[in-house]
Amino acid sequence: MANPAPLLSFPPRRFSQAAWDDVAQKLSAHFGNRYQTGEALRRQHGHTTTWLENQPPDAVVFATSTEDVVFTVNVCRENRVPIVPFGTGTSLEGHVNAPEGGVCIDLSRKAAIKAINVDDLDCVVEPGVTRKQLNDHLRDVGLFFPLDPGADASLGGMAATRASGTNAVRYGTMKDVVLALEAVMPDGSVIRTGTRARKSSAGYDLTRLLIGSEGTLGIITELTLKLFGVPEAVRGVAATFPTLEAASNAVISTIHYGLPAARIELLDPLTVRAVNAYSDTSFAEAPLLLAEFHGSETAVEEQASIFAALVDDAGGEATDTATTPEERTKLWQARHDAYWAGLQLRPGARGISTDTCVPISRLAESVLQAQAEAERLGFIAPIVGHVGDGNFHVLLLVDPESSEEVDKAETYLSWLNSMAIAAGGTCTGEHGIGQGKQRYLRQELGDAVDVMATIKQAIDPYNLFNPGKVISS
Amino acid sequence: MANPAPLLSFPPRRFSQAAWDDVAQKLSAHFGNRYQTGEALRRQHGHTTTWLENQPPDAVVFATSTEDVVFTVNVCRENRVPIVPFGTGTSLEGHVNAPEGGVCIDLSRKAAIKAINVDDLDCVVEPGVTRKQLNDHLRDVGLFFPLDPGADASLGGMAATRASGTNAVRYGTMKDVVLALEAVMPDGSVIRTGTRARKSSAGYDLTRLLIGSEGTLGIITELTLKLFGVPEAVRGVAATFPTLEAASNAVISTIHYGLPAARIELLDPLTVRAVNAYSDTSFAEAPLLLAEFHGSETAVEEQASIFAALVDDAGGEATDTATTPEERTKLWQARHDAYWAGLQLRPGARGISTDTCVPISRLAESVLQAQAEAERLGFIAPIVGHVGDGNFHVLLLVDPESSEEVDKAETYLSWLNSMAIAAGGTCTGEHGIGQGKQRYLRQELGDAVDVMATIKQAIDPYNLFNPGKVISS
C-alpha cells in the first residue's frame, strides 16, 4: 500500500558507506544469523500500524543479552550510526521507524522471566517479555500484571512509551508499576536505576526519566515490575446512556465518589455498532460504559451496586455482566478489538488513533466537540475512551490516497490536540510523542521541551539513540 | 550546642567579595526588608534538625512570586553565587545547608492556594503551603491530601525530597501525587512540566525528574497535586506481638492478601515505652502494629476483621481502636511524635534517623539485625517503620561531644545502609540523599550516579543550585 507524505521531513542519513561497512562487518561477525538485512524483515521492523511512512532500518540484530546490546551500541557509536530499539512493533506513533537508517535492535528474543518474588509482589523480566506472556507465567501463583494496552506489547516497549490501557484508573501506568530498570546508555555503560524497595528517595529518578523516553536516552534491557494479587472477586457492569454527556456525568460521579473501579471504558454508538458486528456482541447502539470492580466478594458487590445507582442518577441503565472469567475475557477482548472493529466501518481505510487526555470535568464537552468536529469534516470516526482517566481515542478513518482527506485529518489532529491542551490536558495520554506529535509537545509544554533537549544532548551527544523521536533538532 | 565534624568536607566558597557585593546590592534593592542577613535568621535557615553541621547562607530572601525567584536566580548566576531553596527547614539530611555560602530563597511566604478543582480531584498550590494548611483549606469540600511526613513540611520541600510518610502504602509518595510542577531553572527560565491530565506520555518526565532532585536542578514555584475524597469510614486496629518477627509476618500477610491498608506502622518495644511516656498512651511494651483502613463502612469493617485474623494467625493480638476523629488524631499524633518521644529516652542526645527501605520479605530479618547491631554497639535506638512499604527508621541517640560515639554511629550507618542495599533495598525511602548519604547513593546505584551527574552538569553548568547535595563533584 502506498503511504502518504510523512508528517515530518528528516535530514538524510549522516553516516558514510565506509562507516556502514565497518558496522555491518562487525555486527555480522558478532551476531551470525541473528544479523539480518533482508528487505521484508527490515520493513517489518519499521512502522507498520498507522498512516506514518514505513522507514526501515539498514539492518536488524536480534539481541539475546545485555552484552549484545552493549556491543551494538559501541560499534554504532564509533561509526555514528543510529540505533532503534524494537519490541513488538505495535507503537502507533512511528517509534520504531529509522528515518536516518541505522541498526534496529530487536529485543523480542531477550525475553527471560528472571525472577518472580511472590512475597514481595514483584518480578524481574527481560524487555522482550510481553504482558500476556508474563500473565501466563503468573497464572499459578495468584498474581497478575494489570496493565493492558490493546496490543500484546513487550514490557520494554511499554516502559519506553509510558503505556497504560484500561486498568490505569486503578493500577496506574508504566511509571507507577516499574520499580527499577537496567538500561544501556549511549556511551555503552550499563546502569541500574533503582532497587526492589517499594519506595526510594535515592537521587534523581532515572527510572521515570527512562520511562516514556521512547528509546532516545537508553535501551531498556531489564525491568523490575510490581505485581498484584489476583482479586478474590471481579464484577463487571455495562451501562447504556441516552447521550454521551449522560455517560460522562456517570464517570465523573464515580470518580468523585471515590469508587475504586479497576476500569471504566466508554464506547460511542458508532464503536458499539462496529464491535457488535466484529465481535458478535449485542449491545444497544447507544453510548456504553463498561466498568469493572476488583476486590472481595462483599466489596465488589457493594461497588457494583453503588455504580448502578450512579448510572441511574445520570439517566442510564446498568446491567450486570461478565461474572465468569470466560465471559470477562470475551467482553474485554471485544473492547480491545474495538480498533480492528472500527477499521471495518470503512474497509481499505487507514486508521489514525488520537490520544488526548483531559481533566475529567472537561470530558463530556471534549468528547462531544471531538465527535461534532469529525462529523463536520465528514469523517467516520468512532470514539473509545479510558474515561476514568479522561483519556479518549478518536479513530479517524482516512483514505491515504486522498490528499484532501489527509490534509483534513491533519487539520483535525491539530484542532483536537489544541482543544485538549486548552482544556488543561495533553495531546497524548498513553501512545507517546514519536514522530507525529512533536509540534504538539512544544505547544503543550513550551520551554520545558528545551530542558528535554538539554538532557538528550548531554546523554546522547551524537543523537544516535532513536533519532527523530520525541525531540528533533 | 556544639556540632560534630560534618560527614563531608566541602570546598571553600568560590565567589569573590565583589561578586557578593553586587548580589547583595541588587537583592536588597529588589526585596527591601524581605532581604535579611542577621546571623540568627541565617542560622535558622541552615540545617538544624540532626547532627549535621549548621552551615548558614550569607543572606536570606523571602520570595513571594515566581518573578522574585527568577530575579534572584539571574542575579546569583551572573555572579556565580549559590542558591539554596528553603521551605520549613524540616529536612533531616542537610538539604537546606549552604556549605558554599550564597543566598537562601525562603519560599514559605509564597503560599497561595491557587485553585481547588473539586470535580477533578486536584489543586494548584504554591510551594510554601504546608500539608496541614492544605488540609485545613480542604476541610469543607470533602477532599484531603494524604501524604504526611511527621513534620508539617511545605509541599514544595516534600516534592523536592520525594517525601512520603505513613499513608504511602495506599496513596503513594510525592512522585505519585504530583501531576505537574512549575519550576525556575538555573538559566532563569520558567518551565511547566505537565498538565492537569491524570496521565500523559508527552515527552520526558520532567515532573518526576524534579521530584527528589533536592533543589539541585530547579526551584519549584508551583505544584499541581492530586487530591482524594475523604473516606466514608475509617477503622483503626492496634496489634501487639510477642516478637518483631511475628509483627513483620503479619505485615507480609497483609500485603500479600492485597488488603488495601491506608497505613501500617510498626513501633518496637522501646518506641512504645517512649511514646507511652511522651504522649500519655498505654500500649503494652511489645512490638506494636498500628493499621488503618479507609473506605465504605462495609469495606473497612471487612478489612479490619481480615486484618485481625491475619494478626491472630501471626501470633499477635488485635484490638479495635480510634474510631472517632479525635481518637484518631491523638493516636497518629502520638505516632508522629515518636521521634520527639524517642529523643527523651536520652535527654541531651542528638537523634540520627536512618531511613532504609527493603523488600517486604526481608523486613523481619532486617529490623532484627538493625536492632541487634545497635545493641551490640551500645546504642539506645528505638525503631519505627512504615512497614507496609518495608521502610523503617532506627533513631540512634548519640552524644555529639563524644567522638567515640560519633565514630560508632558512622560505623552503624555504613553497616545498616550496606545491609539494606545487599537485601535489594535502598539507603533512603523518604528522607533523601542530601549531604550525608552520597557515598551510599554510589554504593546503591553505581554508574547510574554518573548519569545523574551528566544531567546536573547539563542543566546547572555552574553548580549553583543547592551545591553539595545529592552529588558532589
Element layout with pairings:
The structure is a homodimer of 473-residue chains.
Chain A: H1 17-31, E1 35-36, H2 39-44, E2 59-62, H3 66-79, E3 83-86, E4 103-106, E5 113-117, E6 122-125, H4 131-138, E7 143-144, H5 155-160, H6 168-171, H7 174-177, E8 178-184, E9 190-192, H8 206-210, E10 219-226, E11 228-229, E12 233-240, H9 244-257, E13 261-267, H10 269-279, E14 288-295, H11 297-313, E15 317-321, H12 325-336, H13 338-343, E16 350-353, H14 363-376, E17 383-386, E18 391-398, H15 403-422, H16 438-445, H17 448-459
Helix pairs in contact in A: 1-3, 9-11, 9-14, 14-15
Mean pLDDT across all amino acids of chain A: 93
Class by alpha and beta content of chain A: alpha+beta
Q: What strand line-up does the widest sheet of chain A have?
A: 15-12-14-13-17-18-16
Most extensive chain-chain interface: A-B, 95 and 94 residues
Total count of helical runs of at least 4 residues of chain A: 17
Which outline of chain A best applies? globular
Q: Give unreliable regions of chain A as ranges.
A: 1-10
Query: How many extended strands of chain A?
Result: 18
* Beta strand % of chain A: 15-25%
Multimeric status of the protein: homodimer
Query: What's the alpha carbon Rg of chain A, rounded to whole Å?
Result: 22 Å
What does this protein look like?
2 copies of one chain form a homodimer. Chain A is α+β, with helices and mostly antiparallel strands. The first copy, chain A, has 17 helices and 18 strands. The first copy, chain A, has helices at residues 17-31, 39-44, 66-79, 131-138, 155-160, 168-171, 174-177, 206-210, 244-257, 269-279, 297-313, 325-336, 338-343, 363-376, 403-422, 438-445, 448-459, and strands at 35-36, 59-62, 83-86, 103-106, 113-117, 122-125, 143-144, 178-184, 190-192, 219-226, 228-229, 233-240, 261-267, 288-295, 317-321, 350-353, 383-386, 391-398. In chain A, strands 15-12-14-13-17-18-16 form a 7-stranded antiparallel sheet, with helices on both faces. In chain A, strands 5-6-10-8-9 form a 5-stranded antiparallel sheet. In chain A, strands 1-2-4-3 form a 4-stranded mixed sheet. The radius of gyration of chain A is 22 Å and the shape is globular. The first copy, chain A, starts with 16 loop residues before the first helix and ends in a 14-residue tail after the last helix. Chains A and B meet through strand 9, helix 8, strand 11, helix 9 and helix 11 of A and strand 9, helix 8, strand 11, helix 9 and helix 11 of B.
